[in-house]
Every structure is written in C-alpha cells, then in structure tokens.
Amino acid sequence: MNRLPMRIRVTYGAQPDNAQRWNGASPGWPDPNDWINRLCASLEERYRVYQQEPDSLLRRNKAAAMLAQVLSSLHELPPFRDGHAHMPLKDLLIFLNDLDRGRAPPWAKPVNFGGTSVTTTAETELRLWVNGVVHVLWFTGMSRTDAYKVVANGLSKHGRKGNDGGPVPWRSVQQWCRNLGHPNTTMIGQRIMDWWQVMPCPHGYLVTNCETGQWNIAQCEDAQAMAKQFADGIWDLPHLRDRF
Question: Rounded to an integer, what distance in angstroms lies between the CA atom of residue 14 and that of residue 150?
Fold first, then answer.
C-alpha cells in the first residue's frame, strides 16, 4: 500500500487567526510549514538510505550528513543565522567529519571507567524497554519467570543474542530487571506503562478497564494474551538502536 507523504503544519508560536500578521511583523523568516516539511522530507529520504547501509563507517558518514541538513535548515531561521546557540551541533559535525578524514579529535577518546565491559548506551536503553515490558506482563498476572522467558524469547526471535552468541537467556532478563527496579522511574518505562494503560481490548474497552474483568479487577480477560502480543511487537521498533 502506497503511503501518502506526511505533511506537518506548524507556526512559530502564532495561532492561525494571527499567523499572517505575525509573519508580516517578522521579515526574514521562512514559511513555517514549508520549512518543517522540507526538512522532514529531506531527513526521511536520507534515513531510508541510512537504514539500508550495511557498512558502519558509511552509516556514520550518512548520519553526519543528516546532522548537516539540520544545521543548514536552522540557518534559515534568523535567531540561528545571526546567533551562536547551534555551535555545539557544529562542533559535533566537525568531530564526525574529522573521523571520516582519518583524524582522531579529542572527543574520540573514551572515558576510562576502569574496564572494557561497560554497557553501551543503546544496550542500556534496550534494557529499560525490557524492564518496562516485563512489568506489563507481570501486571496481567503472569509469573515472573514466565515473563522473563517471554521477553527473552522475543529478543532472540528478533535477532538479539546472549553473551555466548546463542539465544538470550531468561536469567539475563531477570538480572536486568532486578538492577533497574520499577519502570516508572525512567522516561522509557513510563512511556511503556502509558501505552499499556490506553491499549484498546477486543471488547471495546481499555485492556486495563474492561467489563470482562473478574471480581474487583477491571483488567480485560484477554489481557495476558494481549500483553504477549504487545511485548512481541516492541523489539522491532526503530527507536531501539542496539543492533546498529
């Protein structure tokens, strides 16, 4: 099925009824809707090419080009064209370009944490998602061990591996969750909880507030099956960058 191009409409703080007056009083500004849609279209096109690139160094080069596109678009706006707030982003772009030229800028030096087994940022983020999904499964009445196994199987199914190169062990999932605590303490965990709270169920209600719930529990009778489906759909989200 062909997707229609997404169109975004924004104004720089002005409401529709006074947008024309605001633009008239602010010469030098691009049309806000044209500006954001041009930027979005360019980044979407670059992202498709980026996702298909198997070489990690070329992916880095393409990511730098996307950052350059953002900077170029910011330069169309007077506060950025005439100011300096975007300079840290320019420094980051210079850093990436220097790496592509074989140079080793100071930012390339890793911080020494006293070992080489420090978990990467993307892996840490994945574990936060894991912890949130495990808690969703628990809320449906699933046992802790079964929840760990459901998540471990889902991770393995979608290409993650354990330290030995085999499937992700459920005990690894258990350890991650024990180390992280309740998901509401993190932005990612809270997002997963919020998604689950408003998930529609097959009976026309919310999964957390359905008339099929037993006794004083308003949870849908199909909540556990839905939670498994919910969990399986998480691991291919583009937000998870641990495989790149």
Answer: 48
Length of the chain: 244
Q: What is the dihedral of CA 27, 33, 36, 38, to 10 degrees?
A: -100
Which candidate, 122, 133, 160, 92, places its Cα nearest to that of 239?
122
* Domain extents in the chain: 16-108, 121-232
**Residue (of 207, 209, 241, 210) closest to 227 by Cα position:** 207
Per residue in 209-230, pLDDT (tens digit) is 888 876 556 789 999 999 999 9
**pTM, to two decimals:** 0.75
Dist. CA 141–CA 147, nearest whole Å: 10
Return d(Cα 169, Cα 167) in angstroms, integer.
Answer: 6
What three-state secondary structure class fits 27? Answer: coil
Q: Say if residue 220 is exposed, middle or buried (CB neighbours under 10 Å; 0-12, 13-18, 19+).
A: buried
Q: What is the pLDDT of residues 46-57, one digit of tens each?
A: 999 999 999 999
